[in-house]
């Protein structure tokens, strides 16, 4: 399966430029990985072009980890490039109680395994 290319972003979500100061792009599984990490950091409804993109933070706020796992699984499976979700581990950030560090095992439809690490 051929995945579309996407703009490359830095760790803060800013667009990267290549050595010639042109827009940098990611393709294939690396591009999908970046887009899925961005999905996990987006509040559902925040994107005016896709109201279903992101996590429903109002559903998960103050909820037990099982609810967060369910919402992560649901959000990732809405992407047609994702075949399955494996283990989802969640760690609470004691210094920032409303933030979680999550690690998710994902398998893409082309069989590529990904390990997504994101702060939610």
Task: Quickly describe the structure.
The protein has three helices and five strands; from the N terminus they run ββαααβββ. By secondary structure, it is of the alpha+beta class. Strands 3-4-5 form a three-stranded antiparallel β-sheet, covered by helices on one side. The chain has a two-stranded antiparallel ribbon with strand order 1-2.
Any descriptors?
120 residues; 3-stranded antiparallel beta sheet; alpha+beta; two-stranded antiparallel sheet
Question: Could you please describe the fold and organization of this structure?
Answer:
This protein has 120 residues and is an alpha+beta fold. It contains three helices and five strands. The strands form two sheets. Strands 3-4-5 form a three-stranded antiparallel sheet, covered by helices on one side. A two-stranded antiparallel sheet has the order 1-2. Strand 3 and strand 4 (100-108) form a beta hairpin. 12% of the residues are buried.
